[in-house]
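Task: sequence design from structure.
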């Protein structure tokens, strides 16, 4: 069996449509079970069956139980991002935007259980963060919609030459290899990040205080760092496929967008929200301008063919 066939078998076992559907059903079942378990634990703490010197935010209110199934949904979104990498670069970038938006939505459920309803709403840090996230989630939802609208715009630029088709085929193969490598890497990072956080939680619980600091950043901080490396690799290999200015700028702009998302994990409050919004606005504007270039080039080639 040739190397190409072996690779294709591995790719199909990790990223085929069948595996995607199975993963979706498995994650859904795990999400439902985890939600029920989280609810049971919350009520056990509430009724004194489980005693804690200091009750964590995620165990104070039944609303916080939604945080857990959302975490598993995010894991599936990560898989979808890798799944779409060889198929569509813009969909791959769009999945990055979906993930960071879902992280904000998940944070909203966590913060809902810790709100303080008072006249000092705009002076309380937790309440202000909730307000930022609430507004940001609506804006991000709209921006992602616009991003996908722009990504669907295609412009026919004439007959594709045989050499160009071969270059496109080679580039798709590179993306398949990268996607296949990303699956085990991200599984390892996910397990490592969770164990690191879990061990830190156990150590802090010896004092009777369970630490949930930066729980929203678990795995995803490292995940977006890996995505930056993957995006740079794709950018470099794209030069074998094309050296057109507008395509190079588009790919470079998407990397900048990913970097801005990664930087948001190092901040909090309003700055965190603004970095996320600016990342997606930047990516959307890059795509809009790219489409303008594509339209102009397409019109010029049509005129040449008619002459």
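Answer:
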């Amino acid at each position: 069996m040739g190397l190409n066939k072996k690779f294709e078998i591995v790719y199909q076992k990790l990223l085929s449509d069948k595996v995607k559907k199975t993963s979706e059903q498995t994650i859904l079942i795990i999400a439902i079970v985890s939600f029920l378990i989280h609810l049971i634990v919350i009520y056990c703490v509430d009724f004194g069956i489980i005693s804690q010197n200091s009750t964590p935010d995620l165990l104070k209110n039944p609303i916080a139980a939604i945080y857990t199934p959302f975490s598993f949904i995010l894991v599936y979104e990560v898989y979808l991002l890798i799944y779409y990498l060889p198929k569509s670069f813009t969909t791959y970038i769009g999945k990055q935007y979906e993930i960071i938006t879902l992280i904000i939505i998940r944070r909203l459920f966590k913060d809902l259980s810790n709100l303080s309803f008072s006249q000092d709403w705009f002076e309380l840090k937790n309440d202000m963060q909730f307000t930022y996230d609430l507004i940001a989630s609506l804006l991000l939802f709209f921006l992602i919609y616009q991003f996908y609208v722009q990504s669907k715009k295609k412009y026919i630029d004439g007959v594709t030459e045989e050499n160009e088709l071969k270059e496109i085929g080679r580039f798709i193969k590179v993306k398949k290899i990268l996607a296949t490598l990303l699956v085990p890497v991200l599984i390892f990072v996910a397990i490592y990040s969770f164990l690191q956080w879990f061990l830190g939680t156990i150590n802090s619980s010896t004092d009777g205080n369970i630490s949930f600091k930066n729980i929203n950043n678990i795995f995803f901080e490292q995940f977006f760092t890996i995505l930056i490396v993957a995006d740079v690799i794709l950018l470099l290999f794209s030069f074998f496929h094309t050296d057109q200015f507008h395509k190079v700028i588009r790919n470079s702009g998407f990397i900048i967008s990913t970097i801005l998302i990664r930087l948001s994990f190092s901040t909090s409050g309003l700055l965190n929200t603004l970095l996320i919004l600016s990342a997606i606005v930047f990516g959307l504007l890059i795509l809009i301008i790219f489409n303008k270039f594509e339209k102009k080039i397409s019109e010029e080639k049509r005129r040449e063919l008619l002459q």
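The chain has a mean pLDDT of 82.
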